[in-house]
Write a structure and sequence with these properties.
Length: 442
């Protein structure tokens, strides 16, 4: 029965490996570039950005000349009665044409709208950057999860192989009277647990690859190792305050909120402009036939050039109400800006701490792994000399495996914190990924 289970397990792992492994590994940059072309959330952000671009020409249009042509062609039935004499009914056709040119000269609300639209376009640009940063974090998280699963599978594979060999050796020792069935059960239990762990890690890797497929249409296995040398460790020497200063100046969330405040401030001015006069230059040419009921057969031709001023006097209080509303919207956006700034400060501090702590954990786990390997060598030598048992050897190997997992996890967590810290400080997603990719080796 054990033999059948071993064969079934080996076939299952081979099938899953064939499903996941491709001819070549996909780089992080390739995954991210692909994600930018297929991720629905990011594509929606692009559509929102492009839609906001149109607000600028729409705001500019009211300040440019407008040319209009109107025409009419009417059938008239004229009945005239002056109380003394009733004139015969007249049926005739009339027509008119007017070509008008209007050039705004003084339009306070239009100039304010233009400035407001410019701020809206810039705000939309930072919203797109924020969406790109979010996509980068989602992509890298899934990528590193798959990478971590690869590392764990490699260690678990070695452990299962060792346990299988140990099970054979222990079974032989029982037959020779040098071990007990309890020893066999202990090894078998460790082997079953390792196989269960392996299946769990395979499921985790499948989920990570499914995420990559969802984000970017890629389902290829990532590289199998990462580098974590002094170059990246050098970033921990940058003080927290410098990261905070960068974030306050360049963070996409803060800048988006900042321009939203500018937009609503312009809305206040635009509301107040409802009290201000407007001035337009007008030039028009008109001609008409049979439009005078006194003289139906008359032809008129008229040319006009001049200025037209409009001075609002009273609009039922709507202007004042809109101004008060815009003022409260400004208060709201100012508070949201302050909240966003405080939140970004907290996030920068958190990710900086995660990065610093991660580097410390990497160093500590590296030292612990060296000690675990030295201990394993010592236990194996003592086992050969008869001072240690095979159970002691297995315990030492599991200690090495657990330390390797912790080291890999600390590396991945540090790299993710490093990415988030760069994005929070205003570094572009592509540049941040290029920096991160230097530490992921094929």
């Amino acid at each position: 029965m054990r033999l059948y289970w071993s064969l079934f397990h080996s076939m299952w792992i081979a099938l899953l490996s064939a499903f996941f492994v491709h001819a070549h590994a996909v780089t992080l940059s390739e995954v991210f570039l692909a994600a930018k072309t297929v991720d629905e959330t990011y594509l929606g952000a692009i559509a929102n950005f492009e839609a906001n671009q149109e607000s600028l020409p729409q705001a500019l249009a009211p300040l440019l000349p407008s040319l209009s042509l109107t025409a009419q062609n009417m059938t008239n039935r004229l009945e005239k009665d002056d109380g003394v004499v009733k004139f015969p009914q007249q049926n005739y056709r009339s027509s008119g044409r007017t070509l008008a040119l209007r050039q705004p000269i003084i339009r306070p609300s239009a100039w304010i709208q233009l400035k407001q639209s410019s701020a809206q376009v810039i705000s939309a640009q930072y919203e797109l950057i924020r969406a790109e940063n979010d996509l980068a974090i989602r992509t890298v998280s899934a990528y590193l999860d798959a990478l971590l699963a690869d590392t764990q599978l490699k260690a678990l594979g070695a452990q299962i192989e060792a346990l299988q060999a140990q099970l054979i050796a222990t079974t032989l020792s029982v037959k020779q009277g040098q071990a007990t069935r309890t020893d066999i059960m202990d090894v078998q239990g460790r082997l079953d647990q390792s196989r269960a762990d392996e299946l769990q890690v395979i499921s985790a890797k499948k989920y990570a690859l499914d995420q990559l497929t969802f984000f970017s249409s890629y389902a290829k296995a990532p590289p199998l190792s990462i580098s974590f040398d002094d170059e990246i460790n050098g970033f921990h020497k940058i003080p927290l305050q410098e990261w905070l200063n960068r974030a306050m100046e360049n963070n996409a969330d803060i800048l988006t909120s900042k321009f939203r405040v500018e937009i609503v401030k312009q809305e206040i001015l635009k509301s107040y402009s409802g009290h201000l006069p407007t001035l337009d230059f007008i030039a028009q040419i008109s001609s008409s036939n049979n439009e005078n009921i006194q003289f139906p057969a008359t032809v008129f031709s008229n040319r006009q050039v001049g200025l037209q001023m409009n001075l609002p006097l009273f609009s039922g209080g709507s202007v004042l109400s809109a101004s008060r509303q815009a003022l409260q919207q400004t208060n709201k956006e100012v508070r949201l800006f302050n909240a966003t700034t405080n939140n970004i400060r907290l996030q920068v501090s958190k990710e900086h701490s995660n990065f610093i702590d991660g580097i410390s954990r990497v160093r500590a786990n590296s030292t612990a792994l060296m000690a675990a390997n030295e201990f394993l060598i010592s236990v194996e030598k003592n086992n050969q000399a008869g001072y240690k048992t095979q159970v002691d050897v297995l315990n030492a190997k599991q200690r090495v495996l657990a330390t390797e997992k912790e080291l890999a996890l600390s590396k991945f967590q540090s790299l993710l914190a490093f990415l988030k810290l760069n994005l929070l400080s205003g570094e572009s997603a592509q540049q941040s990924l290029s920096m991160l990719e230097q530490y992921i080796q094929k």
